[in-house]
Structures are given as C-alpha cells and as structure tokens.
Amino acid sequence: VTASANKSKTKTEAQLGTRPEPLQLTTERSRVSISISETLPTGTSLTLSSNMTGSVSSLYTDQATGNLEISLTQSLLQGFGMKTNLASLRKAKIDVDISQAELRAVAEDLVSRVEKAYWSLYLAEEKISIQKESLSLAERQLDESMERVAVGKLAEIELAAVNAEVAARREALIDAQANYEKARLQFLYLINPDGEDIWSMLPITVDKPFVPDDVMDEISVHEKLGLKYRSDLQQARLSMEKGELEIEQTKNGLLPRLDFFLNYGKSSYAESFSDATPD
Length: 279
What we know:
The protein has five helices and five strands, in the order E-E-E-E-H-H-H-H-H-E. The protein is of the alpha+beta class. The radius of gyration is 44 Å and the shape is elongated.
C-alpha cells in the first residue's frame, strides 16, 4: 500500500497584451494518490490505484481531475511460475532445516563425547585402584625382602631391584592420579554443572560397564538408519535441493521479458476538488 500527497503554490507576473502593468498570477496545485498492489506466486501483479489532482488559478477556471485504475500484469516468460517466484522462500526454509540439522549434529556429538568422557573417568578410577594394589604388593615384597636380609637369607644387594619396583609402582600411581584429574576436568567441562567452583567437584561414577544381553542388529540395519538420519548427509541433501532452486531461478532469469497486461480505468473532471472523486 502506498499513499502520497503534495501541494504547491506559485506566483508569477505576466505581461498581457498592451496593459502597462504586469498581471499577478497565482496558481495552487494539489495532488493525492493512493494505490494497493499484490504480486502472486504465479507471476501475476494486481494493482488498484486512484489519484486526484486539482488546480486553482487566479486567471483560469478551476480544474480538478480524478482517476481510478485497475491493472493486471501476467509474466509469460521471465518471472512466470510458482517454482521460480517461491524459490527464495523455499531456500529460506531449507536454510532453517540445515541449521536444525547442524544443531542436531552438535547435540549428538556432545552426547557421544560425554558418554566417552564418563567411561574414561570410570577407567581412570579403576586404574588408580589397580595401581594402589600394585604399590601395596610391592611394598609388602620390600618388607619381606628386608626381613630376609636381616636374618641373612637374602643378600642386601637384592634390595635394589625391589626398591626400583616400588618406585616404579609409585610412579605409575602418580600417572594414574594425573590421568584421573584430566578425565575429571574433561567430564566437568562437557556437562557444565551449575555451581560457583565446578572444577573442584568430584563426580561419582554410578553406572558400571556391562555386557548387554540383547542381540545386536545387523550391520545393514545401522547402515540404512545412518544413511537416513545422519546429520551431515541430511545437510548435503538439503544443500543439493537448495542448489536446484538456484539453478531454476537462474534459468528463468535468462529468459526475455514478455508480459500480458490489462488496464481498466475511469477519469472524471470537475471544477472543484471534492467533485472530481471517481465513481
């Protein structure tokens, strides 16, 4: 919908005939117009417009004109067809679907990373327990060896190997504790729990690993599901569909412009602005 209005006034001096004094001429012009138009997906344009003009002069008779017009324009080549005219809208919808697929891919990746981080944390805990048992066993062997040295059943030089074994077990325990800290921080980073000091939290691994009793599906079943639901493949298919729409737009844009148009209108004339309103 468009509307406009303007009004102007001019004053001039004109020398008419043999009159010694110039004649003062004053003219006021007014114009009001309004129109409403709609473009249909078929390439059809409909417009309804009306305008009124008026002129009031100090020399001539007042004149006013009103006009009402209906026009229809149908594209026959370039701009014809719903497929071409709705391409931009359909591409926008495809962009939304692509964004949703990207979001789903991020969510699936996050779930996978959290699951892997959980089992890494569980494994790190188990390794600490194993290394503690190994260190305890090595320390008991050291105590036994020292007792055997004290009673003369073992040479003192043999303690070097046992001490080296204890040191290796302590080193392995330190490494396991360091790996646990890394796994704990990675797990907290992924789940992002609420709290002020999240990095000091100690997650408790409740679920334990187990062998499922159910029979696994055939590989072909997972292959079909992957081809149908994988987010990256969905994005690729949507991008191809978007490209086909762009090709359709380009082909239509290369066509020449050829329109069928029909205009119907009526004009009315009067000496006053209000009487010039068209029926």
